[in-house]
Amino acid sequence: MSLRKGENAAVAVPSVRVELGWRPGPGVPDVDASALLLLSSGRVRSDADFVFYNQPAHSSGAVRHEGKRTGGAQSLDLIGVDLGRVEPAVERIVLCASADGGNFGQVPGLRVRVLNAAGGAELMSYEVTDARAETAFILGELYRRQGSWKFRAVGQGYNSGLEGLATDFGISVDEPQHAPAPPPQRTPPPAPVRTPTPTIATPAPPPSPYVAPTPPPAPVPHTPPPAPPSPPAPTRVTLTKAAPAVSLSKQGGTTGVMRVNLNWEVRKQFKGWGSKRGRAVAMHNDLDLDLCALFELVDGSKGVVQALGNAFGSLQMPPFIHLDGDDRTGAVATGENLTINLDATQAFRRILIFVTIYEGARSFSGLNATVTLQPQHGAPIDFSLDECTVPSTVCALALITNNGGDLLVQREARYLVVPRGMSPQRTIDQAYGWGMQWTPGRK
């Protein structure tokens, strides 16, 4: 089964082998596979939850780095996962790749395959086709869902190497120099970025003029015009004050799912840096934002999807909205994620996407939070929460309304000041007239 970015599938076997593959050649950097075992908070418990070439086995025995197989037309790096031995506290196993001595734009044929450990049959695969200057990738993740395991193709890159990727999950990884090579120059890793894929339409060249082979010369036939360029692939849409709304139908996002991702700038306190292949060093992050959704369906039912009270929703039944989990990292590749089932568009009347500050800040000012709505079929929709000038701990991000079967996304970016004694949820409810009854809740 071949998956596209963002798609998932059930893992129906007790043990898997995750195979990272690429085509070696001149100028192709070496690639290393690794795995991070994460709690429901989206963070590791300690450096022991990082499995890579210099720490090849987790203490539980559930995850193992099985080493590389090189030579021939393909190189492989293998991670073994015994799902039955994964500790109950571990909610996700993030499967990563890092490039040594280059970037993934120089790595052809990059893909990940999930195999049945018993017999080696392929269960699913995902090929990365949009790599550019990234030096680390989250290729996929194994995660628990209602007592079973699933695999999701993630395909999100970092241009800050293994260090930048690992620190977003609460650890820091360094590597010693390889003798006899001199130590590489080190620069502070930049923040992770997403690089949109440019779209270039190339028209077909006109045919050569016709010339008769024998006299008398025949008239030169009419030369048809060049073929029109292929329609461009969906490009990224940015919602602003000047252009605050977009139709999902016009962007091609009418079926499948739409992923709503929130990430923010993590407040990091480094205990220290060692060498890249050395032991991991724990980090602190005191900021916790929560991505939430108020929904109203056409049958009149209303509710909220949020981590508070474990109201995670459902994708296949009402409300057709699901929150993946409660993240505390703010990582670009993970962060907080809501998924909306666009195949159930007719069931929606309106959806309000909003964010609350659970702890760690008194305002959105300076947090550099960004939101991306990514339809499975269609262009990504971006906007930033960078205009807060009041002591606000709740922000209405986007209002999605059903307009005759077409979902219209309206940028709100509305920062609300929570009155004393009132919850952020009740504040947002009153501002948009949802009319729900609220009781105290906790994570």
Account of the 3D structure:
- The structure is a single chain.
- With 443 residues, the protein is mainly β.
- It has two domains: 2-167, Lipoxygenase-1, CATH 2.60.60.30; 237-432, Lipoxygenase-1 (Sandwich), CATH 2.60.60.
- Helices cover 4% and strands 38% of the residues.
- The protein is built from two helices and 27 strands.
- The protein has helices at residues 161-167, 424-432, and strands at residues 2-3, 8-11, 15-22, 30-38, 50-51, 63-69, 75-82, 92-100, 111-116, 122-127, 136-145, 148-158, 237-238, 245-247, 257-263, 269-270, 283-284, 288-297, 302-305, 313-314, 321-323, 336-341, 348-359, 369-375, 381-385, 394-403, 406-416.
- The chain has a seven-stranded mixed sheet, with no helix packed on it. Strands 1-10-9-3-7-6 form a six-stranded mixed sheet, with no helix packed on it. A six-stranded antiparallel sheet has the order 2-12-11-8-4-5.
- It is globular.
- The model is unreliable at 173-212, 230-234 and 266-285 (pLDDT under 50).
- Residues 179-195, 203-234 have a biased composition (Pro residues).
- This is TerD domain-containing protein.
- Pfam families: TerD.
- Belongs to the CAPAB/TerDEXZ family.
- InterPro entries: Stress/Tellurium_Resist, Tellurite_resistance_TerA, TerD.
Task: Compile the SSE list and pairings.
Elements lengths: L1 E2 L4 E4 L3 E8 L7 E9 L11 E2 L11 E7 L5 E8 L9 E9 L10 E6 L5 E6 L8 E10 L2 E11 L2 H7 L69 E2 L6 E3 L9 E7 L5 E2 L12 E2 L3 E10 L4 E4 L7 E2 L6 E3 L12 E6 L6 E12 L9 E7 L5 E5 L8 E10 L2 E11 L7 H9 L11
Parallel strand pairs: 1-10, 13-25
Antiparallel strand pairs: 2-12, 3-7, 3-9, 4-5, 4-8, 6-7, 8-11, 9-10, 11-12, 14-27, 15-22, 15-24, 16-17, 18-19, 18-23, 20-21, 21-22, 23-26, 24-25, 26-27
